[in-house]
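Quick entry, no commentary yet.
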Amino acid sequence: MFNQKLSCPLYANAGCFTSASRIRENQEDELDIIRGCSTFRGNYNCYDQNFISWDDENDEQINNKYTTCKETCSGDNCNSEKALIKSGNSCHVCRVVMDHNGNVIGTGSEDCLYLDQVAEYDIVDCGEESSCATHMEIAWLPFGQQEILVERKCDVPNGSDNLCTERKTNGWLEKDCWEHCYEGIFYFFLTS
């Protein structure tokens, strides 16, 4: 846990945790380590977040990346090992909602659906225990229009790797499909 031994409180006595965060800004890395008592038990996982900043001096956009890896363990002082940011599956991460005419609703990009152009900042490291997932949900709304949601993301496998379900009421139809991949960048196209 820490350099000194502390007793964990009742609400956080499931084990110890380590969080390693790396921010890459202007091609430089900064690392921040947090250790403590954990309420959660679980495996190692990472999350990447891309963000854009603006360099006023050079009047240009800069792509930055923030990565946090979290790990829990059990036993006294079990989180005293060197904290690492380990690589796992890299996945395309994006989200788009489109109407039945192919018009984007909101702020997503249709590249998420067709993957004509994969931007480097849309590919993230998902961690060792994760998979890449593609979720497509098509809704036929009560007033007649259809909307399609496509999201690609990091996910934790849950036993239902490739699954499509349908739901309907008098005014609403919905098809909800998931696919998972466990190696490399994953691209999914709905074929049926």
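second:
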Amino acid sequence: MTRGIDIKRWGLQALAHGAKMILYQGYREWNCIPIHWGALVDFDGAPTERYTAAGALGRLFAENTDFIARAQPVPSRVALLYDHTNVLVSASMGGDDFMRTALRGLHEALWRAGYGVDFVTPEHLAHADYDVLFLPFAMAVSESAGQALAAFVEGGGRLVGFAKCAMLDGRGWSWNQRPGAGLEAVFGVRESWITVDEAPRFTLAIDGRDFALAGHHHRQDLTLVGGATAIGAWPDGAPAVVRHDFGAGRAYYFGTHADIAAKDSRAYPDAFAALLAGEGVTPACRVTGSGDLQLIDAHLLRSGADNLLIVCNEARERAEVDIHLPGIAAARGQDLMGGGVLVAPAGDGPRVSLALDARDATAIRLMP
């Protein structure tokens, strides 16, 4: 049964993702439907806790109408490529589990590191306004998609690929050189050999930090071309991770399925965070504190210099969190849902401290 706190949390979640209208299914419980959907009033028309919660949301919207009408979520700077043709080719070769786990692994690791991500398809690459683009298990890459990815990097974007990237073309045929589709020049690598290794391990060095990481299923041996630099190594010293400047951008290539290995990993969120931070890409909201932080969902809505921070606790336990907001100029905050909040100004952006009960949510207006 839907509770009032669910109405509050779901409404604020919708607002955080850019919704401008909320439609409730059923104002009054329906006798003709034997499942209680959680209408705002009961069978007799008496208000419920859901009615009270919806009313509180309505007042918040009414008191901030101008801001909400103009505000948009702060856009993600990171995206994952999702190509339906690649999904079909992967499934036809029995690799659908690889594809699914790669998507989940990358999304989970980036989420744990504080980064929201978008998904972009090949036909939209020409207009992809992102700083970094990851290629989860991108085994099939057409010539046109390869050209679009090359243009993305050449124009200043950052590209991250993994083992077997661009192994096949848009028909599912093998490219002569891998990675194919012209991406050899972008990544600065050429496959010299690939072998099954169920537990490949390698080291990665980024900005003075060393990471010991586990790969997955394949070790792809790489020949460096075009002035690329190895920043990761297999135990025998051969290149495992390569960085290559291309045009105004940069590309990274992992010689194993690090996107899959990232699933349920404690190490990869830190490694990917270091890679992104080294490229000057920081999360809009960085959450620390107690509780299940993976289930703390923080988003910023912005209109000009005005910001609204929405925080939802999806966990079944109370959380006490500090949220760092790089690049925001704010000295104080007002909890629009009536709770307490502490805003501590800092040089690189304020830190907002608050406590949220299980399944609770709040909205905080940030002011200079």
